[in-house]
Amino acid sequence: MSTTAVLDVAAVRARFTALQRPLAFFDGPGGTQCPDEVIDAISTYLRESNANIGAPYETSRRTDALVEHAHLRAADFLRCSAEEVAFGPSMTALNFLLTRALARTLHAGDEVLVTKLDHDANVAPWLELAHDLGIVVRFVEVTDDLALDYADLERQLSERTRVVAFPVAANSVGTAPDVRRVVELAHSAGALAWADAVHYGPHGPIDVAAWDVDVLICSPYKFFGPHLGLAFGKQDLLASWRPYKVRPAANEPIGRRLELGTLQHELLAGFVAAVDYIDSLGWEAITRHERDLGERFLAGLPDGVRLYGFPTMAGRVPTFCLDVPGLGPRDTAESLARRDLAVWWGNYYALETMKRLGLDPVDGAVRAGIVHYNTAEEVDRLLAALAELVP
């Protein structure tokens, strides 16, 4: 792992064929680009090792080894044991599976707290359980500056609270709640801390042990890997659940019980390469570069552009939700696309955040996200384009 905190952005970008074009990618919140080594790992697996597990021949043995190695690298990435991780087709699919396993222990009147910063993938599973079982889902408020309202969270905790579900970083406005504070509040009520780290994944190290979360889900395609879901659950907790699975599937290691059917082996190879790629750079260099670019963006935001969320990089990741006066979000995004600037518009599945902001539930707002492969020149291009759009 690199020990320097200075990121050689030109060297980083040379590792991405996808970046060798005029288009500046500020769409990382919707999925990052993959370095060539991730793409090569996927294609190499398919060329040389493609097989199902458990057979005595060479390619199957290679696939067995890959599956084991992928779980070990996932454990390294999340800071847990390999027995506590599970892969799936997406974070959303894994979260529906995990919540349904937990649901066998829930009863009508039990309460789950979610936040108004959450992506719907950590809201809808609980709402469906409310429909099926009669549990109660409550929404924790955010403050006017879009920080999590910890006082409201504490007020809503009760002896009936079973889960506090929350984002490690909001995919809409970039807020990064104090994870340890949320976990401690949840545990003080005897509730599980259920963390969505999908959006945080490319921006900083995940440490489930230090955070003491009970469940965490994330998605490698947000941190320079392929489309997959990855979940962590504390070993004793997973062992206490009866998961939905086929009868012949193994019960050990515990996390494997949550992996339904054959895994996407080629994507596991890509996942391993993505984790190796991040390790080759080091989180210190990544986070410093992102913070510098985020501060550059915030300092140069044109007058008249409305920013939703924190005005500095304190307490946030470099994901920015904004509006240009007199121009709808879709028109803004299309105008920027014509200038080779890729941003998103819409609600980003953050329905409660849009509602809290009083924005249209479909059109939402414009979202621009910075990751480590972005450059100062690209940020300046985006700022100049926004200035051109302001009436």
Write the layout of secondary structure elements.
Elements: H1 9-13, E1 24-25, H2 36-48, H3 58-78, E2 85-88, H4 91-103, E3 111-115, H5 124-133, E4 136-140, H6 150-156, E5 161-167, H7 179-188, E6 192-196, H8 208-211, E7 215-218, E8 229-233, H9 235-240, H10 265-281, H11 283-300, E9 306-308, E10 319-323, H12 329-337, E11 341-342, E12 344-346, H13 351-357, E13 365-369, H14 376-389
Parallel strand pairs: 1-11, 3-4, 3-5, 5-6, 6-7
Antiparallel strand pairs: 2-8, 7-8, 9-10, 10-13, 12-13
Describe this structure in words.
The model has no long low-confidence stretch (mean pLDDT 96). 39% of the residues lie in helices and 14% in strands. The protein has helices spanning 9-13, 36-48, 58-78, 91-103, 124-133, 150-156, 179-188, 208-211, 235-240, 265-281, 283-300, 329-337, 351-357, 376-389, and strands at residues 24-25, 85-88, 111-115, 136-140, 161-167, 192-196, 215-218, 229-233, 306-308, 319-323, 341-342, 344-346, 365-369. Helix 8 links the parallel strand 6 (192-196) and strand 7 (215-218). The chain has a 7-stranded mixed β-sheet, sandwiched between helices. It has a 4-stranded antiparallel β-sheet with strand order 9-10-13-12, with helices on one face. Helix 4 (91-103) runs parallel beside helix 5 and helix 11 (283-300) packs parallel to helix 14. The chain contains 14 helices and 13 strands.
Overall body shape: globular
Order of helices and strands: HEHHEHEHEHEHEHEEHHHEEHEEHEH
Strand arrangement across the biggest beta sheet: 2-8-7-6-5-3-4
- Report low-confidence residues grouped into runs of 5 or more: none
Q: The biggest beta sheet, please?
A: 7 strands, mixed
The secondary-structure class comes to alpha/beta
